[in-house]
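Most newcomers find our protein records easier to grasp once they have seen one. A learned vocabulary of local backbone shapes supplies the integers on the structure line. An example says more than a description, so a record of this kind follows:
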Amino acid sequence: RTEIRKIQPHGVNGPCEVQIMLSNVNIIHSPRLMSDPPRRTGESPSGVNGAPELSRIGELEGDIRQDIPNI
């Protein structure tokens, strides 16, 4: 946990204190990426390093808006 605290000593309405607390964030996999059927042992999936959800990156690239230039 991280805490950011700033005190403005003098403002229009007097002293002002801002406090922000940050905690660890759990990364949740997108349901779209995890929608592949469960992997079975003994099968060699077509995904990268046996991870079929990574093979869907090409599909997601098709969702990029065409009116915004790629950086």
